[in-house]
Amino acid sequence: MEWSDRHTLIVEQAAELFATKGIAGTKVRDIADAVGVLSGSLYHYFPSKDAIAEVIVTRYLDDLTSEYESLLGTPTDPRKQLTGLVEASFRVSRAHPHASEIYQNNTTYLRKLAAYRKIRAAARTTKNAWISVIEGGIAAGEFRSDLPAEVLYGLIRDAVWLSLRWFTPTPEFGIDQLAAAVVTVFLEGIESRR
């Protein structure tokens, strides 16, 4: 399939609809109306609504795993790696608006997609990256050891992904500052610095 501007527009509009209405709650007609074409015309570009969802989620996860693998391939201290994971997560999410929300909120629907095995493999890869960095930080004595790595992972992961729903960057406090704040709060807490 040769990609066109129309493919891009369909994916962008579908992503916005999937994020707000869910994949199951979005009809092909909704996507067609958002793009300004007849419902049947969408099938010229994608064989199904599910195929559009697969493109959105797999492209996002491919970019995320690629960023994580690149980061972990460069030896550095655990704090820098943790900061790198947070920054990469925000960067990829900015490049794929709505994709992380679609991925997080449509897990039941995603299970029935043809690309589900690929999606699960990418999810395992991303989780393993976080766990590896956290366990490395614990082993190095840089991160606290009284909490299981899985618990720390869940807390940090949710702080990262959920903040994308409410955070609006300003000139004074942008995505880079948010990434630094997430790492600082988790590693140093919120006590006043003296």
From TrEMBL:
Keyword Aminoacyl-tRNA synthetase belongs to the record: no
One Pfam family matching this protein: TetR_N
Domain HTH tetR-type: 4-64
GO molecular function terms listed in the Swiss-Prot or TrEMBL record: DNA-binding transcription factor activity; transcription cis-regulatory region binding
Residue stretches spanning the membrane: none
Coiled-coil boundaries: none
Alphabetically ordered keywords of this record: DNA-binding, Repressor, Transcription, Transcription regulation
UniProt xrefs under PROSITE patterns: HTH_TETR_2
DNA-binding region(s), chain positions: 27-46
Keyword Metal-binding carried by entry: no
Protein name per its UniProtKB record: TetR/AcrR family transcriptional regulator
